[in-house]
């Protein structure tokens, strides 16, 4: 689910809960209010009617034989007027009288139906007895709550009919059938629901705008991150929401700029350095220094000093970068790592690899081939010399707090550099230790030379020159030694 959908769902749920709470609260309050209104209505109608009735005349009515008497007719005519004024039905207003004191067994005295039933008995329902009794005892109107009997669901009001001595002689009962109450409540509920729906719709508008703006801002951030991942390191995300999303976008822009600057430095850092930094998070020794078995390869251009004196600076840098670049490609393809460039020379390392010597040898041959192709194509008076040695080195972070290199140091590195210095153009000069580490078929490609005395190394070092029946560089049968170019 998208963030916009989640926001809208959350806002919808909150708005619905608020609307439902509003409707429920209004329903409860309105129900209570309507109940009070209906109670007041039946109580006041009964009370008003009772004040105008003559108690002495009511006491004279005992049976259907009395329905033609003036007393009955006057009482009935008055009740009819009250009924019509208050929009009551015939069975909703009548006069009752207990059959004996403190009894809930009553008899009808006056009613409005065409067929009279004076004297018929009626038992006050259980929910109404307290109110009926209070009306009789305290001589003032009372009303019931909602109750149900065999005739339906009602709200009733009672009022006392008094004689000249102010004694209660009968009770006027006014009923309101609950359907009127419910109809009014449903109408009010419909009005409240309509208002709540309008409020819900209005509340959703700012929610929609908020969700849209928030999701747009975040989508811009997602797009920016994807573009950065795809290599567009100059990407910037513009969000003008003036909120936390804009702050995140600004932070992303700052981070992207910082990373762009750091990524621009990656070509100046060897893969070995990057790997060491990554591994140092779990193993600090990768930066502090550790011994490793490596194969070290140095390659140096012969004749470059004289060549550089004849070139423009801009052209020289481009031509050198091309030659060093193709050598670096060969190193990476062979599984090694370019440790550094020193002028027109390159230092490569094959570390902790069982087949490192064979990879280094293959790398050296390919470097000779590729450099020869380019120099021949452009008629540049250059040649390449390669030196390779294998052994133990110390690999670590070398330098100061201001400037450091992650590199390999030790005798193995020094000897590989000396071998490269002694190698003539289009030669690979290796140590005996390196040659022994190669497979047998590769050893036979080397020709033994006289042991060499290197600077700062006391003993003579047995060395071997790469030689073969068919030169892989020129494609002609020749002696590499005889075809070499003088060292720069």
Can you name the CATH architecture of the largest domain? 2-Layer Sandwich
Report the average pLDDT across residues. Answer: 83
Helix and strand content put the structural class at: alpha+beta
**What's the Cα radius of gyration?**
55 Å
Looking at the structure, the CATH topology of the largest domain is Alpha-Beta Plaits
Return the CATH class of the largest domain.
Alpha Beta
Number of strands: 17
- The tally of structural domains comes to 2
Number of separate helices: 14
- According to CATH, the homologous superfamily of the largest domain is Nucleotide cyclase, GGDEF domain
Q: For the terminal residues, how far apart are their CA atoms?
A: 68 Å
**What assembly state would you assign to the polypeptide chains in this entry?**
single chain
> Which percent bin holds the helix content?
40-55%
Biggest pleated-sheet summary: 8 strands, mixed
Low-confidence parts: 468-488
Strand content is 15-25%
What general form does the structure show?
rod-shaped
Question: Could you walk me through the main structural features you see in this protein, from its secondary elements to its overall organization?
Answer:
This protein is α+β, with helices and mostly antiparallel strands. The protein folds into 2 domains: 3-183, 2-Layer Sandwich (Beta-Lactamase), CATH 3.30.450; 271-466, 2-Layer Sandwich (Alpha-Beta Plaits). It is 49% helix and 22% strand. Strands 8, 9, 10, 11, 12, 13, 14 and 17 form an 8-stranded mixed β-sheet that branches. β11 and β12 form a beta hairpin. α5 runs parallel beside α6. It is rod-shaped and about 155 Å long. The two termini are 68 Å apart.
